[in-house]
Amino acid sequence: MSKFLILGAGPSGLTFANRLLEKGQDDFIVLERFEEAGGLCRSTDVDGTPFDFGGGHFLDVRRKNVLDFLFRFMPESEWNVFDRDSQIYIHDQFINSPIEANIWQMGIEQQVEYLKAIAVAGCNLGQDMPERFVDWIYWKLGSKVAEDYMLPYNRKMFGKDLNELGTYWLSKLPNVSFEETLISCLEKKAYGSQPAHAKFYYPKEYGYGEVWKRMADNLGDRIIYNEKVRSIDLDTRTVNGKYSADVIINTVPYAEFETIDGMDSEVRTLIDTLKFSSVVTEYHPENMDTHAQWIYYPDESLSYHRILVRHNFCTDSRGYWTETNLTRFKEDNAHPSFVNDYAYPLNTIGKNENMKTILDHLRSKNVYGIGRWGEWQHYNSDVVVELAMNLADSFN
User: Fold this and answer.
1) Residue 49 has what pLDDT?
2) HEC string of the chain?
3) Predicted local confidence at residue 7, as pLDDT
4) Residue 152 confidence class, pLDDT cut points 50, 70, 90
5) Model pLDDT, residue 191
6) Last residue of a domain, one of 187, 214, 232
7) Angstrom distance (rounded) from CA 17 to CA 370
């Protein structure tokens, strides 16, 4: 029996394990279903340069403690730093993202239509906030942003039934006041807060998976590869009938467990309510005539929802890759593609309350969920590193 059993060698599991080592604790095992570590942040070689399996993953600059930790494995000198250039292709033109701050880049007639719609959006008229996702988008952003961008883009990413999603996760969207939008159109400059990854790091000579590979290498034979988690006994803290520990750290999707013994039946039913989307990334060798690192496509006649322009952030590379919801993807065998079965946890109605119940129950058994899948939250990699560091530090 080990002190810690860590399920999954993605950013969360790797961070937790390496943080334990830094604290002098080496009595742990990591189980990983694939033959290599990194999870959604893994990289491979396609066409002579790196390709990131999971699509657009970058290292945000804002968390110094995270940067200090990761730079111990891959020094800052091995990274490039970029100013974010993300764009939206809408009305047959490219404008900068987010849309509400860059309406001024559209034609005058379109600007007027968007301004009129924002002026009468419910949030700008003092109306009560709706509870349903689609109603909330209209209330928050106005009918033009809703119908031209937010609703079609979210249908492409998450599925057609958007009203199964809650509204609790949308509070991070910036305020869209008529006054600020009007000023931005008059002064021809963006107003409002910058989105995530306003500045970001990306490796100079590797894909994003390199830092996680080095963290895995640092663990040596403490990682057991090709070991898919199938069963867990919460009372004995035993996984797959042969790995036991005082404490289990789970970073893998709960749907991966074929059997869960020792879990209250009421809690077990909540796991079945957790939903997710699957994404396919597909490589195209042609260079795009753009400075953007990624581009959003709300047009529902196009299968993909986002393009990552590889040659604008990955040194000496060419081409781009698309991200497409698996339900919309049509394989043509002409381009290399990779399926990410678990890409995004869906923020369905009641999910946060259900997850609190699940996580509280697991902790009562000395099992801790952490990261994107352990907590079922759409966290970026820098966030999960910080959370895993904090959790590791909480054990004396």
Assistant:
1) 86
2) CEEEEEECCCHHHHHHHHHHHHCCCCCEEEECCCCCCCHHHCEEEECCEEEECCCCCCEECCCHHHHHHHCCCCCHHHEEEEECCEEEEECCEEEECCHHHCHHHCCHHHHHHHHHHHHCCHHHCCCCCCCCHHHHHHHHHCHHHHHHHHHHHHHHHHCCCHHHECCHHHHHCCCCCHHHHHHHHHHCCCCCCCCCCCEEEEECCCCCHHHHHHHHHHHHHHEECCCCCCEEECCCCEECCCEEEEEEEECCCHHHCCEEECCCHHHHHHHCCCCEEEEEEEEECCCCCCCCCEEECCCCCCCCCEEECHHHCCCCCCCEEEEEEHHHCCCCCCCCEEEEEEEEECCECCHHHHHHHHHHHHHHCCEEECHHHHCCCCCCHHHHHHHHHHHHHCCC
3) 98
4) very high
5) 76
6) 187
7) 12
Nearest to 216 by CA among 103, 74, 314: 74
Identify the band that residue 96 occupies on the pLDDT scale cut at 50, 70 and 90: very high
Residues 55 and 119 both lie in one domain? no
Q: Is residue 194 assigned to a domain?
A: no
187, 211, 226 — which closes off a domain?
187
- Pairwise CA distance, residues 119 & 360, whole Å: 44
Average pLDDT, the chain: 94
The two three-digit tokens of residue 286, written as one number: 């042609």
- Domain count across the chain: 2
Mean pLDDT of 87-108: 94
- pLDDT digit string (tens) for 337-386? 999 999 999 999 999 999 999 999 999 999 999 999 999 999 999 999 99
> CATH number, domain at 346?
3.50.50.60
Residue 168 has pLDDT above 90, yes or no: no
Q: Which domain holds residue 69?
A: 2-85+201-393
**203-238 tens-digit pLDDT:** 999 999 999 999 999 999 999 999 999 999 999 999
